[in-house]
């Protein structure tokens, strides 16, 4: 079968190769991939900024159907429409595994990074990580369950009350999903972006988010104060990974506000305004990936229509067209690109 494989470290080194069709072990299922989404992590891996096991088939956001089950698998049958968590292996013994926080296990191995992922025809996943797709959710939408689970995980880190004013900084795929999850909780959502985010800001308007703000045209602090009687936002979720956005996010929060760092910074050490955190008694929390408890709620958000993931798809390509997909995303006009396997 054909697979899109990261062969070596450094920029590029992503090739379509012939790989052996995998067979499931006793506790695994074999999935025929229908769609696999390009994630920011895949882009960083292509550019040489993210470490994976070489060689490895990339792709950890996917949907498909079960075509074979291992001897011990009883919860799934051939033909089931499924998606899967990225977790392929955990130690199962540490306190994080025992509490279901697999995303924090030091020994965790993930699909598309340490284990072959979804940019191909078939993959194997551990049955414990697999989830059925609701009947009314398309394969396209379901292929974005993983980033939606990341968004759900981020929002679960803080308490959001109905009518809270919540600012989501960065209108990329994660930001647009986070904003929809927040809105499903009854909060008033402000999503921000720049001039080069216009396509994404237009999508935010299409999704009927409450306030769509280009911060190069509008003073964000004045805008937030105008809708909060001068108090500031209840919550900020920073999804861009841009240092200026993080600083601005702390500035627009009200006293006793909540701040969630979702985006990953290019450099891990940045200047951070601890004075604001102290003086305003701000609660600051980080969020990493997703965990099992985020998946079924995410699938229900897709099924209920509270989250429209399919609306974020701006291009569908074959795995041989990686360069086109990469340029579509990097050029700013793309939001989410889905890749299809080839025979």
From TrEMBL:
Protein family: Belongs to the zinc-containing alcohol dehydrogenase family.
One Gene Ontology MF term: zinc ion binding
Gene3D superfamilies in UniProt: Medium-chain alcohol dehydrogenases, catalytic domain, NAD(P)-binding Rossmann-like Domain
Protein name listed in UniProt: Zinc-binding dehydrogenase
Signal peptide span: none
Cofactor(s) listed in the protein's UniProt record: Zn(2+)
Keyword terms of this UniProt record: Metal-binding, Oxidoreductase, Zinc
Domain of life per record: Bacteria
Keyword Oxidoreductase: yes
Ranges of residues in domain Enoyl reductase (ER): 10-339
Keyword Thylakoid included in the entry's annotation: no
């Amino acid at each position: 079968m054909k697979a899109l494989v990261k062969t070596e470290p450094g920029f590029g080194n992503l090739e379509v190769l012939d790989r052996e069709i995998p067979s499931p072990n006793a506790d695994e299922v074999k999935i025929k991939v229908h769609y696999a989404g390009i994630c920011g992590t895949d882009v960083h891996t292509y550019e040489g900024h993210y470490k994976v096991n070489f060689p490895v088939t990339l792709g950890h956001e996917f949907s498909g159907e079960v075509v074979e089950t291992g001897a011990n698998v009883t919860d799934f049958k051939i033909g089931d429409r499924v998606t899967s968590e990225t977790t392929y292996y955990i130690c199962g013994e540490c306190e994080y595994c025992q509490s279901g926080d697999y995303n924090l296990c030091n020994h965790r191995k993930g699909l598309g990074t340490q284990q072959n992922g979804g940019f191909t025809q078939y993959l194997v996943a551990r049955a414990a990580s697999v989830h059925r797709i609701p009947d009314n959710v398309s394969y396209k939408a379901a292929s974005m369950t993983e980033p939606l689970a990341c968004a759900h995980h981020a929002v679960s880190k803080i308490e959001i009350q109905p009518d809270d004013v919540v600012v989501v900084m960065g209108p990329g795929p994660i930001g647009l999903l986070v904003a929809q999850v927040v809105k499903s909780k009854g909060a008033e959502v402000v999503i921000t972006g720049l001039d080069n985010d216009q396509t994404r800001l237009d999508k935010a308007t299409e999704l009927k988010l409450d306030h769509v703000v280009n911060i190069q045209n509008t003073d964000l602090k004045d805008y937030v104060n105008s809708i909060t009687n001068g108090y500031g936002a209840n919550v900020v979720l920073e999804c861009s990974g841009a240092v200026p956005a993080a600083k601005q996010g702390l500035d627009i929060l009200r006293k006793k506000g909540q701040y969630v760092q979702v985006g990953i910074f290019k450099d891990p050490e940045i200047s951070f305004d601890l004075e604001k955190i102290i003086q305003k008694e701000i609660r600051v929390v980080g969020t990493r990936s997703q965990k099992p408890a985020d998946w079924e709620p995410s699938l229900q958000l897709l099924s209920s229509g509270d989250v429209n993931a399919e609306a974020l798809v701006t291009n569908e390509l074959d795995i041989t067209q990686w360069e086109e997909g990469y340029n579509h995303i990097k050029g700013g006009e793309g939001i989410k690109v889905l890749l299809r396997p080839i025979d």
